[in-house]
């Protein structure tokens, strides 16, 4: 699995100062900003800006897009708090490269091979722990309405189960240990085992209702493994691919019609356990295969799929979760019950923050995508800052859309900032309780 340089990320003391230097010396310009209200994990806060050049390279060849080195991206982070990974990195190591990201052509195969090699030989990459709730957990609402309709208040489609029967099936899944502690389905539980377990435990009162809908119930339970991803990608991936993504803890993001798959290693070049260190990122950019107006494939550009706007906060939280899980493991091994309980509560808070943030990040990402598409339409039907007369109606229509999506993005950002402030205060309370 050959890998090709995509970008590298630096932690610095003065982000704006470094950005100014890169613009003065290399003519790099900012592409994406992640502000402090968005990038937060508990009490830890950072700001980040992606800067780079403007490549003119386009191609219709996927292999050329994979190998292309004309586009340079340099994300730059700075810490805004005295806690967290970026602050610790700057304190222990100083300014420098936090991680190097490389593109691969088949990330599922790449990561599976790395995981298999580590199990066989006891060496190689280990990857950050991603909470299963990122991918999907089973809920009673899913058993009533199914995966894609669980948030609908009304629908003309028939429910799978009544709420009472759904409660019973859900409780069976818990008591018969089909689910992990976080209510995610254990990955090696087969369709036959799930059906046999529910068949043999369903009370007679609900037997008929369950039997009439058995196939849909079992299918919903299986789909819960990747429910959040399915709501993003629908049938663009096979069940085997979805399960492989969950099993190997790969992150997925969507930008317009492009996909981005990401995974981050644990620390490398680490001097001793618990200290900060650099790490690697591996990504696969799946560019849109849409056709242009001429009937030919649209040209691919370097950097399709963006920078994982949904996943930026997930990465930040996952770094803190992985560190806290290591602390919890050490406390458990040493028999320190109080320390274990404290650190496990940190893990729970980080995971709860991730769960609450994910739908808000989706709102932000979707609004940004729609706003960007609208602004492209405006650019195509305007001259400078004025709409061309013959395209005035279209131009003004897309201006309304762009403004609407800009407001939606701002509203979701505000909700995310409130969410992050909530968990900042909860983490502060936890720390001060010690």
Summarize the structure in short.
With 434 residues, the chain is α+β, with helices and mostly antiparallel strands. The protein contains 14 helices and eleven strands.
Characterise the protein shown here.
With 434 residues, the protein is an alpha+beta fold. It is 49% helix and 15% strand. The strands form 2 sheets. Strands 1, 2, 3, 4, 5, 6, 7, 8 and 9 form a 9-stranded mixed sheet that branches. Helix 12 runs antiparallel to helix 13 and helix 13 packs antiparallel against helix 14 (392-432).
Q: Could you name the key traits of this structure?
A:
434 residues; alpha+beta; nine-stranded mixed beta sheet; two-stranded antiparallel sheet; 14 helices; 11 strands
């Amino acid at each position: 699995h050959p890998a090709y340089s995509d970008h590298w990320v630096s932690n610095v003391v003065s982000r704006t100062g470094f950005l100014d230097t890169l613009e003065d010396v290399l003519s790099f310009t900012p592409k994406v900003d992640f502000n402090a209200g968005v990038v937060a994990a508990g009490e830890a806060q950072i700001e980040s800006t992606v800067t780079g050049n403007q490549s003119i390279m386009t191609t219709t060849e996927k292999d050329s897009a994979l190998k292309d080195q004309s586009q340079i991206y340099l994300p730059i982070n700075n810490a805004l708090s005295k806690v967290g990974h970026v602050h610790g990195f700057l304190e222990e190591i100083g300014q420098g490269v936090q991680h190097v990201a490389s593109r691969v052509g088949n990330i599922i195969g790449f990561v599976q091979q790395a995981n298999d090699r580590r199990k066989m030989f006891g060496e190689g990459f280990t990857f950050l722990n991603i909470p299963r709730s990122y991918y999907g957990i089973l809920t009673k609402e899913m058993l009533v309405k199914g995966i894609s309709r669980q948030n609908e208040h009304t629908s003309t489609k028939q429910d799978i189960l009544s709420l009472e029967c759904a409660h019973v099936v859900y409780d069976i899944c818990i008591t018969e240990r089909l689910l992990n502690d976080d209510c995610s389905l254990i990955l090696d539980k087969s369709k036959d085992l799930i059906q046999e377990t529910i068949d043999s435990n369903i009370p007679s009162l609900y037997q008929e209702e369950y039997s009439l809908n058995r196939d849909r119930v079992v299918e919903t339970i299986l789909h819960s493994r990747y429910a959040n991803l399915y709501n993003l990608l629908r049938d663009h991936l096979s069940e085997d691919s979805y399960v492989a993504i969950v099993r190997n803890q790969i992150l997925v993001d969507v930008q317009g019609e492009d996909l981005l798959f990401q995974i981050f290693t644990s620390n490398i070049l680490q001097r001793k356990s618990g200290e900060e260190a650099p790490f690697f990122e591996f990504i696969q950019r799946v560019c849109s295969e849409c056709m242009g107006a001429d009937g030919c494939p649209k040209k691919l550009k370097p950097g399709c799929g963006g920078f994982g706007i949904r996943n930026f906060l997930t990465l930040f939280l996952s770094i803190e979760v992985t560190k806290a899980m290591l602390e919890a493991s050490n406390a458990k091994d040493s028999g320190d019950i109080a320390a274990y309980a404290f650190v496990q509560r940190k893990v729970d808070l980080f995971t709860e923050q991730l769960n609450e943030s994910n739908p808000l990040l989706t709102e932000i990402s979707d609004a940004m995508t729609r706003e960007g598409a609208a602004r492209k339409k405006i650019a195509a039907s305007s001259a400078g800052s004025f709409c061309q007369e013959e395209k005035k109606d279209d131009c003004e229509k897309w201006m309304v859309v762009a403004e609407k999506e800009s407001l939606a993005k701002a509203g979701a950002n505000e909700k995310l900032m409130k969410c992050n402030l909530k968990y900042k205060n909860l983490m502060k309370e936890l720390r001060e309780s010690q």
